[in-house]
Amino acid sequence: MHTPPKNAEALRKIKPVISYPPETLPAPDLELYAKARASAEKITECLVPPRDARCFDVPAGHFFRITSVEGPQVGDLNIWSATNIDERFYTGKTRALHGSHLKTGQRMWSSFPYLRPMATMTTDTLDWYGFDEFGGALHDLIGTRCDPYTQALLTGDMYHHCCHSNLSRALSQHLERPIEAVESYVHDVLNVFMCTGLSRDTGQYFMKASPVRPGDYLEFFAEIDLLGGLSACPGGDCSAEHSSDVAACYPLLVEVYAPANNALEGWSSPQQNSYDRTHGRI
C-alpha cells in the first residue's frame, strides 16, 4: 500500500542481533543433575486422562518425567511455585532467552518480579527432530493454549475440554478453591511434544502431526518447589485441529523421582531475582 524507500532492500539485508545473548545466563550443572538422576527412585505418578488435566507436586531437587503412553499425544504444561502461585512460568521471557522451542539444558523461567529458573529440561527423547523444512520444531513457547474463549469467538461453540478449561478445573480441584478464583492463574504453556512453527510467508502459528510415540518422554529437574499442571490436549497429536471430540486422544503419564541423599551436594535452589524493584523512583 505504500511505496518503499530507495534503500528498502539494503534495510532488509541488515543482519539481526540476538536480543538476549545467553553467555551470561547462570548455567545449570547438567553433570551434577545427571549424577543425581542416576540414583533417583520414583516416588509418585499420575495419569492424565485424554481431554483432561491433572496437577502434581514436585519438591525442589527432584525430577519429573512426562511420557507419551498408548498413542501420539501432546500436552499443555503449566508450572507454579508450590508456595506462591503468583510466581508462574513466563513463556515470553523464556522464549526471549532461549528461543521459540525449549531444548535439553534450557530452563523454564518464572514471571516478574521473581524471574528465576523454575525447572531445567534434562532429557528429551525427541531431540533428534530439530527444525524441519517448514520451520517446525517440538516443545514450543509460541502458542498460548487452546481455550474456550477463542473457540466461542471463532465457532460460537461452548467447548469445555480446551486445555485452558482443563487446567482451570485441575487447579481448582488441587487447591480446593472455586474455579473462578483460580482461572486467572492458568497461564501460557510449554506445548509438550507439539510440533509447531511460524509460517514463512505470513508469520502465522502452525501445527503439524507430532512425531511423539508411546515411550517418548521429557524429563525436568525442579529448581524450586513446584506445582505442575498438565493437560492432555483435545487435539491428540494436533495433526488436524486442537479442540475436538473427534481427534484420537491418549493419556500422558507424569512420574516424580527423588535423588538419593547428598546426591546434589553443593546445589541450592535459586533465589528470587536480585533487582531491587525501585523502578527509578526517588
Question: Secondary-structure map with pairings?
Answer:
Layout lengths: L7 H5 L17 H9 L2 E8 L4 E6 L4 E6 L6 E7 L2 E5 L2 H8 L8 E3 L7 E8 L12 E4 L7 H8 L7 H13 L3 H4 L7 E9 L6 E4 L8 E6 L3 E7 L19 E7 L24
Antiparallel strand pairs: 1-13, 2-12, 3-11, 3-13, 4-5, 4-9, 4-12, 6-7, 7-11, 8-9, 9-10
* Terminal residue distance: 47 Å
Q: What number of structural domains do the residues give?
A: 1
Strand content: 25-35%
Integer-rounded radius of gyration: 20 Å
Largest sheet: 7 strands, antiparallel
N-to-C series of helices and strands: HHEEEEEHEEEHHHEEEEE
| Structural class by secondary-structure content | alpha+beta
| Annotation field: number of helices | 6
| Strand segment count | 13
Shape: globular
How confident is the prediction overall: mean pLDDT? 96
Can you offer a commentary on this structure?
A hairpin with a 2-residue loop joins strand 4 (75-81) and strand 5. The model has no long low-confidence stretch (mean pLDDT 96). With 282 residues, the protein is of the alpha+beta class. The radius of gyration is 20 Å and the shape is globular. The strands form two sheets. Strands 2, 4, 5, 8, 9, 10 and 12 form a seven-stranded antiparallel β-sheet that branches. It has a six-stranded antiparallel β-sheet with strand order 1-13-3-11-7-6. The chain contains six helices and 13 strands. 17% of the residues lie in helices and 28% in strands. It has one domain.
